[in-house]
Design a protein that fits this description.
The complex is a heterotrimer of chains A (1028), B (362) and C (244). Chain A is α/β, with parallel strands linked by helices and 1028 residues long. Helices cover 26% and strands 17% of the residues of chain A. Chain B has 362 residues and is mainly alpha-helical. The chains are: A alpha/beta (1028), B mainly alpha (362), C alpha+beta (244). The structure holds ligand MGD (2 copies), iron/sulfur cluster (5 copies) and molybdenum atom.
Chain lengths: 1028, 362, 244
């Protein structure tokens, strides 16, 4: 007995031993098998370098197994020019860094005349050249390359199985996909679905009672994200060929409020130009609601110049932000400082600074008083403002809030040209009579006392634009402004003092921080502050983008903007970004005696508004959608509050019968799609991109497939993607502008548009030939060294013999670039070359003349401090008071992640996004770092972790964007038989947009947006924390 | 607050010496300690130690044979163990260890053989299935005190070197203030001896051969070892508190702010005091004191190695370690325990360690 | 506006901070092996770091660093400090990597001599010899080493020796967005790194100078609080315990 027991125990011991030591045994076995032999003795698994440079002679030897090519990154919207290193045998991208020719990646950049081989040497240790000549890609840019071979990628067309958003798909052929989408039918066994052919009704109105809405074709819409250099072809498809007005990008939930505020100053609320501090020369910069080097656009160029100039140059800067970020750097000591501010109150700070500047004569009134460009230039100024222009201030006058125009004064202006560009503006003449602004030869008065002019035979009170701004600034004491924004009064004064102490070498800029309930006016104030020191177009001031070499216009070689049979779409866009006063609803309600409120707000001064699209489509206001094409866009993740508002409706085919997505990944939005068409990823795509801003010279980045795209092919051998999809759909319906004879060259000869190359290579010819002289030809050596040999044949086959080497030149350099030295004007070295030459608006009468569509109240035409509010103008706090919602939640860009990079190595560095609260608040609530809490807003509740830090304004909860995913790998989809890998870690953290607010001031589905710009509100959400 | 620092991003480093290392240091320590306990009874003829020493030798063998296997597993390239002998680097204490371990284990086995030879001879003489094997092992069954003492001397040298190298290997790591203390070798030794006493006490119970006199004797020794442990601990603390040694000051600074570490320290002190009290007051009872002593020896090593590695060398705060389930964690612990049990059963099946009355052992 | 108000404004608003020079580092050129051609060193100008981790990720990519391991990282801290009675809050970034010490404590402990200093100064691991005992990992005062679970060997920054030999820069230097990482040869009197080290010689510091390791990674802008182990609140992330 005893013996048996002992044996059993001994056997048990041995078994445990075997289990415990099996790994050791395996490892020993590896040794026997030689599996422990390293590829290299000292260098780990590092692949051989891409080339070698002899550091004595500078001689270059390429590695024949690798390819180094210059193209564009898509790791974020900065779209830097990068150099991609590829293992030729496996096609795998090994690493990415910057393109030294591209100013988004190198400072200063190499002249494009330098040969490709020389450019490689310039990156090496030879003469330590590579240090100053460094061309970089950021951490995200380095990490996102792994998405190319991601297990979560969509490579073949897919059709949903079961209900929408159920995570099950069946792969289908491209041809079946196109057929089903075009012809419709009982596609899912849920009843008939109209296809794109049937939906293209160009004549029948959506609503005969509201003809202004346009034809039914508008009920098919295409939504995309950023222009990744390809949206020319999508716009051509949806608007010019298919005929719908509804094409939109993500602007309204990116930095829409900022762009609108800037558009107000630059006098164009649709295209919304803006400027950036000339970082290479500015001496003092204020970043308010943008975090240079932490996010910001252009992320990398801004970060690089900021770092360089604060360490080696003259730059001093402050970052006004509720949150401390990587925009600060203690080691640079007093060169950069963080100033905390209460969310959504930037307008108070701006108006406080303005008030101090006005009271202390720090406004450059001499500059402001130039009423036109000629007068300004004569006075040595590269820009001018409308500060002296007259506007009607007579209460109740039909032109109240509008500038006085020639037609108002009885000048003979054709009715259709009334209030357009050629209807002149006026200033007050020395004789007390209005003087045509463009004819004034000197300065005009900025301030008038009790002025009036005669309109239609009776005196009407007028004032100058400047007077309105001044009145707005003087509305409150500095101490009151300080109390509202939480920036101490002496700091406001010191800021204003400092800002006005550097002549024109100071500038202020903003962006995402303006996405609050008072965003438009806050941003308007920020941009206008620049005008008060007259820094626009000055070296070291607010610089205008150098612009781009356009590929998609009716260019020097090919006419890509127009074609035979093209449609000019009409009607009201889904985003309601037109005046309410033009609608039938207004007319009916007016006739009934009560024109206001509209059913939901209208945004006459906004561009296309994604923020309104989906809620509006579900409400049927202004109309319903029948089909939606989402191309690489993710509104369900990116728009605060949208998910809760759409809820199950988005999954209901009766509410929106057809959703097609074109995307390389399954994200939170296209998880609801009926079909997903695979698309190319960053280095697989063609395209021509322009910098978002902040580059003073003219440039275009070339994107081309430097690797073999991974997507499946169509029956005729093309890689599936947005281009192949749109072309196939167009051909199938028989749309103009695609297929045979779709593209005319400069001589009028017609060419086919059958594949992506037909479009982008011809666009390339437009790029190459623009300007005074075309670019030179690429040499064989350049083509070889840069891997452009990959596409040489395509170039030769598509383009004319004289064109192809020029376009090849663009690909060898990864784009086309104006010389760095041309940033400043040759004749006026203190002026920037690319100048904004129209009037800068101290007062914008499109804003000042418009009315709130819910209340009928007029908007203010100048910057002003207004509390964050809902659509009817009532303040947020009147709905959600502080005693119930003591905190304000804000969102900020992760310094690492973007919205779709979660499934990359960036996670290793920062796997989650704890919400950040101030030490004092934590003390009050007895919270400590790592603790689980509930974060709650009126829009919802989420469990999260806290991080206690001194680096956030007390009373604020800061949430890093880029986490809290439900898709992109966080949920494993079933595609045919293939189950995607389960990676629960990818769902880590929270997305504050799941907690975004609806607007309680009008009925129906809504998301909270800024009243003027229609931009989504992600900052300053009323919130509270409780222990989880 | 003069400066308040919140670490937002830093390089997390995992523990690189895994629980395998703790097991090795624990087992080799117990083996050496048990070997020392075997000396009075078996090499120096102190008869009151006879029973205890005999069990101690068993303990020394079981632990000594198990330890190197755990050590091997802590290597991430165990198949390359022979590199230790091909490419010896003389500046590394670990390199020396690879020579000391075989020296000690070889000596120990020789010593054990010499000690048990007469008994094997007797077993062989009894006849039975295993008699030929016993005979071969006994190899004449000669009992030579001189030879035993010589072997004990050799093993003692090995044991000293093993104790020295294991202590020094840890002590020289200046990067870890907690390790970088001249007291560490001493602490390791004292707790090893205490643990070995505990092991013998437990073996007594496990093998059902409890004798009050032996238990008393062992508890007395245990009490002495706990005094020693307290004394060394006090010196350690004093060196830190009175800023007599910079590395102690740093070590103290690293851990003193942490509630977990304070708890650990209190626990260790309490366990030592309890062991001491029980050993003195209930000296006739051995199981509890024995377990306590072994627990202290284990805990000391766990805290030193795993706890020590939880303190980042450049980052802030601590890296919490959670014992994983797999081979590098619980499964590994079970594996080693299994091996230990197997060796124990094999040795005790082969040879009647428990019964010293009719043994020829001196 | 006159010059005085100007500079007064500058002074009052962006108050200059005292310059801390304690613990200044001097490169230990003496530790050079005879006959060496190069003495590689890195100079990190922390003022130019934006914490973008381009270095970290490019190093992953270049050197196939396994998940959850790092050869370099840029530690990032939120710091609140009382200076002259005023509360100042800022971000401190600290790029960390192997210092390629002139007196490297990781080397003598290696039982099999697998890790050593190359003639040009790089401290490397011979992967053909390493037994993965992790003793060097313990001995490095900078947490610069780790066990690579894919290879089973000690791993660390190599200064991208393979790239240096090809006449190129290390991956992290090549793609440093802020231009904070500078690299070069201290034996070359004309090198950029020598020029900059001379220019900043009073501000140069190294990490843990008291450890006597004589690092070859030098810093401009390194604050005293960050020279050694950080006395502060730990970040939340933990390594995924191997085997867990
Ligand atoms: N790292 C990284 N960089 C990126 C991107 C990314 O995803 N990650 N995305 C790119 C894109 S698409 C864009 S549009 C740009 C955007 O770049 P930014 O506009 O610079 O970034 P955001 O994080 O949107 O907002 C900037 C700052 O506003 C602050 N803020 C929030 N509320 C307020 C407020 O009420 N007032 C003030 N003054 N500040 C406030 C936030 O704390 C944040 O630091 O970044 C680009 N670069
Ligand atoms: N709370 C909060 N919300 C925000 C922000 C914030 O800071 N905080 N930021 C806002 C800003 S600035 C912006 S711009 C928006 C961005 O939001 P969106 O413009 O909607 O889109 P993204 O999520 O950037 O990317 C869209 C999709 O593109 C696809 N994609 C990824 N890589 C590639 C590729 O290589 N090729 C192709 N063809 N497709 C690809 C992915 O499926 C991804 O989901 O989000 C906004 N929302
Ligand atoms: S800034 Fe954006 S585009 Fe540029 S390298 Fe980084 S991720 Fe790519
Ligand atoms: S930093 Fe660490 S790993 Fe690098 S040489 Fe110094 S001691 Fe060795
Ligand atoms: S892990 Fe490798 S390099 Fe490090 S000490 Fe052990 S054998 Fe040497
Ligand atoms: S030098 Fe090379 S190995 Fe070292 S941190 Fe930089 S990239 Fe990594
Ligand atoms: S790449 Fe340069 S700027 Fe970016 S984190 Fe690394 S050291 Fe800092
Ligand atoms: Mo954006």
């Amino acid at each position: 007995m005893e013996n048996v027991r002992r044996k059993i125990i001994a056997a048990g011991g041995l078994t445990a031993f075997a289990a415990g030591f099996s790994q050791t045994a395996y490892r020993m076995w590896d040794k026997v098998l030689g599996k422990d032999a390293p590829p290299s003795r000292f260098y780990g698994d590092a692949p051989a370098p891409e080339f070698k440079v002899d550091t004595l002679t500078g001689e270059l030897a390429l590695n024949p197994d690798q390819q180094v090519s210059y193209t564009g990154c898509l790791g974020c919207t900065t779209q830097c020019g990068v150099r991609v290193r590829i293992d030729k045998r496996t096609g795998k991208v090994l690493r990415v860094s910057g393109n030294p020719y591209n100013p988004l990646s190198a400072n200063p950049e190499l002249p494009q005349g330098v040969s490709v081989r020389e450019s490689f040497v310039a990156l090496s240790r030879f003469g330590d050249k590579g240090l100053d000549g460094r061309a970089t890609a950021c951490g995200r840019g380095n990490a996102v390359i792994s998405q190319i071979d991601s297990p979560f990628r969509v490579l073949s067309p897919m059709k949903r199985v079961g209900p929408r958003n159920s995570g099950k798909w069946e792969p289908i052929s491209f041809e079946q996909l196109v057929k089903e989408i075009v012809e419709g039918g009982d596609l899912f066994g849920e009843g008939h679905v109209d296809g794109l052919r049937a939906l293209r009704s160009l004549e029948t109105p959506i609503d005969p009672n509201a003809p202004e809405l346009g034809p039914q074709v508008n009920q098919v819409a295409l939504m995309t994200s950023v222009n990744d250099g390809r949206d020319s072809i999508a716009r051509r498809f949806i608007q010019q060929a298919y005929g719908s007005i509804n094409f939109v990008r993500h602007g309204s939930y990116c930095g829409g409020a900022w762009r609108s505020g800037s558009g107000a100053v630059f006098g164009d609320l649709k295209k919304m130009p803006h400027g950036r501090p000339d970082l290479e020369n500015v001496e003092f910069a204020i970043f308010i609601g943008t975090a240079p080097g932490n996010a910001g656009n252009p992320f990398k160029r801004t970060g690089a110049l900021l770092a360089k100039e604060r360490a080696l140059g003259k730059l001093e800067y402050v970052v006004v932000d509720p949150l401390l970020s990587n925009a600060d750097n203690r080691a640079s000591r007093d060169r950069g400082r963080w100033i905390p501010i209460r969310p959504g109150t930037d307008g108070a700070l701006m108006m406080g600074m303005m008030r101090w500047m006005i009271e202390n004569r720090r406004v450059n009134t001499t500059y402001l008083a130039n009423p036109n460009l000629k007068a300004a230039e004569a006075a040595g100024e590269p820009s001018f403002t409308n500060a002296s222009w007259l506007l009607v201030s007579e209460p109740g006058h039909p032109r109240e809030g509008r500038f006085v125009r020639g037609s108002d004064l009885g000048m003979a202006i054709a009715p259709e040209l009334r209030y357009k560009d050629d209807d002149p503006y006026f200033v007050m003449g020395a004789d007390g009579q209005p003087l045509q602004a463009d004819l004034a030869s000197g300065t005009a008065p900025l301030e008038l006392i009790d002025a009036s002019i005669e309109l239609d035979g009776r005196p009407v009170a007028v004032q100058t634009a400047y007077m309105q701004l001044k009145a707005n600034a003087m509305r409150m004491e500095i101490a009151q402004y300080a109390a509202d924004c939480g920036v101490p009064a002496d700091t406001i004064v010191a800021l204003a003092d400092k800002f006005t102490s550097h002549g024109r070498r100071a500038a202020i800029t903003g962006h995402g921080g303006m996405m609050s309930g008072s965003g438009f006016y806050n941003a308007f104030g920020v941009v206008a502050l620049n005008l008060l020191i007259g820094n626009v177009n000055w070296k070291g001031g607010l610089a205008i983008n150098g612009g781009t070499f356009r590929h998609d216009g009716d260019g020097p070689r090919y006419r890509l903007a127009s074609f035979e049979g093209q449609i000019k779409p009409g009607g009201i866009p889904l985003g309601r970004n037109v005046p309410y006063e033009k609608t039938s609803e207004f007319a009916f309600k007016k006739a009934a005696g009560k024109p206001f409120p509209a059913q939901a707000p209208w945004f006459p001064n906004a561009p296309g508004l994604t923020t309104q699209w989906l809620t509006g489509a579900m409400e049927g206001y202004p109309y319903r959608l029948k089909a939606l094409i989402m191309w690489s866009v993710n509104p369900m993740y990116g728009i605060p509050g949208l998910r809760a508002q759409l809820g199950e409706d988005f999954a209901d085919p009766r509410k929106l019968p057809l959703i097609v997505s074109v995307d390389p990944l399954i994200n939170e939005s296209n998880a609801y799609a009926d079909y997903i068409v695979p698309d190319s990823m960053l280095y697989e795509s063609w395209g021509w991109t322009a910098p978002w801003n902040g580059v003073p010279t003219r440039m275009t980045t070339a994107r081309w497939p430097v690797i073999e795209p991974r997507m499946d092919k169509t029956a005729d051998g093309q890689r599936i993607g947005i281009e192949a999809f749109l072309i196939a759909v167009s051909k199938s319906i028989g749309l103009p502008g695609f297929g045979a004879n779709a593209i005319a060259d400069a001589e009028g000869k017609l060419h086919a548009l059958d594949c992506a190359e037909d479009w982008f290579l011809r666009g390339g010819a437009n790029v190459a030939y623009q300007g005074k002289a075309p670019v030179p030809d690429a040499s064989d050596e350049d083509i070889e060294a840069s891997g452009v040999s990959r596409i040489r044949e395509r170039l030769e086959n598509t383009l004319s013999p004289d064109e192809w080497r020029k376009v090849a030149f663009l690909y060898t350099r990864g784009g086309r670039y104006q010389a760095h030295a041309q940033a400043q004007d040759a004749e006026h070295p203190e002026w920037m070359s690319w100048r904004f030459k129209d009037a800068l608006h101290i007062y914008n009468d499109n804003v000042g003349g418009a009315r709130n569509s819910l209340t009928g109240k007029r908007f203010n035409g100048s910057p002003i401090w207004l509390e964050p509010a809902f659509a009817d103008g009532t303040s947020m706090r009147s709905h959600y008071p502080e005693n119930a919602w003591p905190m304000l939640a804000i969102s900020f860009k992760s310094p690492l992640q973007n919205s779709y990079s979660i499934a990359t190595r960036l996670r290793n560095i920062h796997p989650e996004n704890p919400v950040i609260i101030n030490t004092a608040d934590a003390l009050g609530m007895d919270l400590h770092t790592g603790q689980a809490v509930w974060l709650e807003t009126p829009g919802g509740k989420r469990r999260c972790t806290v991080l206690v830090s001194p680096g956030v304004m007390p009373g604020v909860i800061a949430v890093e964007h880029g986490y809290g995913h439900r898709e992109l790998g966080a949920r494993a989809h079933l595609i045919g038989e293939r189950q995607q890998p389960q990676k629960q870690q990818l769902a880590a953290g929270i997305n504050i947009n799941d907690l975004g607010l609806a607007d309680p001031t009008y009925p129906g589905r809504s998301v909270w947006v800024d009243t003027v710009s229609g931009a989504s509100v992600r900052n300053g959400l009323p919130a509270r924390l409780s222990l989880a | 607050m003069q400066t308040h620092i919140v670490e937002v991003i830093n390089m997390p480093r995992e523990v690189a010496w895994l629980p395998w290392a703790v097991q090795y240091f624990f087992l080799i320590g117990l083996s050496v300690g048990a070997f020392l306990l075997s000396l009075p009874g078996l090499a120096f003829g102190r008869s009151k130690w006879r029973n205890a020493s005999r069990l101690a030798l068993l303990g020394a063998l079981v632990c000594g044979l198990t330890a190197p296997v755990a050590l091997l597993s802590d290597l991430h390239q165990p198949g390359r163990f022979y590199h230790f002998y091909l490419y010896m680097n003389a500046t590394s204490w670990m390199a020396w260890g690879s020579f000391f371990i075989p020296l000690y284990l070889g000596g120990l086995m020789l010593y054990a053989w010499l000690v048990t030879r007469p008994d094997f001879q007797r077993l062989a003489d009894r006849g039975g299935r295993w008699a030929p094997l016993y005979r071969r092992v006994a190899y004449g069954g000669l009992s030579s005190t001189g030879a035993i003492r010589a072997a004990a001397g050799l093993t003692g040298l090995g044991a000293t070197l093993v104790a020295l190298y294991t202590g020094m290997e840890v002590m020289v790591v200046a990067a870890r203030p907690l390790w970088n203390s001249p007291l560490v070798p001493l602490q390791l030794l004292v707790t090893a001896v205490a643990g070995a006493i505990g092991l013998v006490l437990v073996l007594e119970r496990a093998m059902g051969i409890v004798r009050v006199a032996d238990t008393r004797l062992l508890n007395q020794a245990l009490a002495a070892s706990q005094f020693a442990a307290l004394a060394v601990g006090a010196i350690w603390l004093a060196l830190g508190l009175f800023e007599l040694s910079p590395s102690h000051v740093r070590a103290l600074a690293e851990v003193s702010g942490s509630p977990e570490w304070r708890l650990t320290a209190a626990w260790a002190a309490a366990a030592t005091l309890l062991t001491l009290a029980l050993a003195l007051l209930r000296s006739g009872h051995g199981l509890l004191t024995g377990l306590l002593a072994m627990h202290s020896a284990w805990m000391m090593r766990w805290t030193l190695f795993i706890g020590g590695q939880e303190i980042p060398k450049v980052g802030a705060g601590f890296h919490a370690y959670h014992l994983p389930l797999g081979q590098d964690g619980w499964l590994g612990l079970f594996g080693t325990a299994g091996l230990w049990v197997f060796v124990f059963i094999a040795l005790t099946s082969l040879f009647p360690w428990g019964d010293a009355r009719d043994s020829q052992m001196t | 506006m006159n010059e005085d108000t100007c500079s007064a404004a500058r002074r009052s608003f962006l108050k200059a901070l005292p310059v801390v020079t304690a613990g200044a580092a001097v490169p230990s050129l003496g530790a050079q092996a005879p006959g060496a051609r190069h003495h590689w060193a890195m100079l990190v100008d922390i003022r130019r770091c934006i914490g973008c981790q381009a270095c970290t990720v490019s190093c992953f990519m270049e050197n196939a660093v396994p998940e959850d391991n790092f050869r370099t990282i840029v530690s990032t801290y939120a710091v609140e400090q009382l200076r002259e009675g005023k509360k100042e809050i800022g971000t401190f970034m600290l790029p960390r990597l192997c210092n390629h010490c002139s007196n490297p404590p990781c080397v003598p402990v290696c039982p099999v001599g697998a890790t050593f200093k190359q003639p040009d100064g790089e401290v490397v691991v011979n992967a053909e010899r390493c037994v993965g005992c992790a003793y060097c990992v313990q001995a490095c005062p900078y947490d610069a080493r780790f066990i690579n679970h894919e290879t089973g060997k000690a791993d660390k920054c190599t200064f991208c020796t393979h790239r240096l030999q090809a006449g190129l820069l290390p991956a992290c230097v090549e793609t440093c967005v802020g231009g904070a990482r500078l690299f070069g040869d201290l034996n070359d009197p004309h090198s950029e790194i020598n020029r900059l080290m001379a220019l900043h010689k009073d501000e140069l510091k190294t990490l843990k100078p008291e450890a006597g390791t004589h690092p070859n990674v030098f810093y401009i802008g390194l604050e005293d609080e960050f020279v050694g182990r950080i006395d502060g609140e730990a970040n939340l992330w933990r390594p995924t315990a191997h085997g867990a």
